[in-house]
Write a structure and sequence with these properties.
Length: 358
């Protein structure tokens, strides 16, 4: 691992706002800079922030370094590993295949993945989407001594170490990376394409998300790539990959705030998925016990005074991210960071509460 010491001085790097903004937007930029001050060290890993309101990007800011060792600053085109923000894309892939007639949400997942253990019987695609399958976390069975990376195809064998589920399938809620790795495999079985190719052909390319990629080492490259880091006592260490970083369905997409602005616009315009199906994805699912999960298809769904809020976090070695959508205010905020730790979801909430956005 590469270790660097950074200065304690704070400065802005790579900032960009929409030109000719009115005075309230100037106030917004200053307020956002203040909220993101912990990411502005000129020689350290940074962040990129996107604010969209009423279908228009009103602010983009980028701070710090995408590649600390090479001195490459972040920009709105810097591609960060999305971690679990990937799940909304995995869910959309399933939704597209449902609209194609290639699968149904209530199909048993054993119809698509023959190598699943007996404990997966009774689990449906819908249960994977809503984290109500009860399947064990595949990470629990990855040994600390693992030197090669795990892939989606390894997940069925890993969860075979468990002879039961956490709860009867459909009866509870437990956030699950396992479920979204299996969804990636189902996309492949139902479409006849690799998961990365399906995402490119059906989502990224049609939306003009030209820098976005489900990254596969040795197969694809990430343009304008941010590398991941950990900061400890002022020391910056590159910690870009872990043993589970190659699993695609639960967290393997790289993207930028520029491309995510296009994604947000497509969601609001129902460009890919019809409005009825999108509304279901943005509705808290119900368990067989009649309780709400607080999760739809790839999105957390919260209640607030201004109506439902759609959000997701993304945490992996070297990257921590957040997205927040408030449909009633036609507001979306994305914060991508290339460092371990921090709470960008709280920062997004603070930004949403700024007077300029009320």
């Amino acid at each position: 691992m590469k270790v660097i010491t950074i200065a304690a001085s704070i400065a802005l790097a790579g900032c960009r706002t929409v030109p000719h903004r009115p005075a309230p937007m100037a106030d917004l930029a200053v307020a956002v800079d203040s909220i993101l001050r912990d990411y502005t060290a000129p020689a350290g890993p940074g962040a990129s922030v996107l604010i969209v309101r009423n279908g228009t990007t009103i602010l983009e800011r980028s701070y710090g370094m995408a590649d600390v060792e090479a001195g490459v600053a972040t920009t709105p085109r810097t591609n960060y590993r999305l971690a679990s923000l990937t799940k909304q894309f995995t869910a959309t892939a399933i939704m597209l295949l449902k609209e194609d007639g290639r699968l149904r949400y209530d199909d048993p997942i054993t119809d698509y993945i023959a190598t699943l253990p007996a404990s997966a019987r009774g689990v449906t695609i819908r249960m994977l989407l809503t984290h109500s399958s009860g399947l064990w976390a595949y990470e629990d069975f990855v040994p600390d001594s693992q030197t090669t990376q795990v892939h989606d195809t390894d997940v069925p064998a890993l969860i075979a170490h468990a002879d039961r589920t956490y709860f009867a399938p459909g009866s509870g809620y437990r956030y699950s990376n396992t479920g979204y790795a299996l969804l990636a495999l189902i996309v492949e079985r139902a479409s006849g394409k690799s998961f990365a190719s399906f995402l490119h052909d059906r989502i990224f390319a049609p939306l003009g998300m030209n820098g976005t990629v489900a990254y596969e080492d040795g197969i694809s490259t990430v343009p304008n790539r941010a590398f991941g880091y950990t900061i400890d006592s002022g020391r910056v260490t590159r910690t870009d990959q872990s043993s589970t970083s190659a699993v695609l369905g639960d967290g393997g997409i790289y993207s930028s705030i520029d491309d995510l602005a296009k994604w947000n616009a497509a969601l609001d315009a129902h460009t890919l998925v019809n409005e009825t199906d999108q509304r279901e994805a943005w509705t808290s699912a119900m368990t067989t016990r009649g309780t709400r999960t607080g999760y739809g298809f790839g999105w957390f769904v919260d209640s607030a005074s201004d109506g439902p809020r759609l959000r997701h976090h993304g945490e992996t070695m070297g990257f921590t991210n957040a997205i927040l959508k408030i449909p009633s205010r036609r507001l979306a905020i994305v914060i991508l960071t290339n460092r371990t730790g921090g709470e960008p979801w709280d920062l997004a909430t603070r930004i949403a509460a700024l007077p300029a956005l009320r």
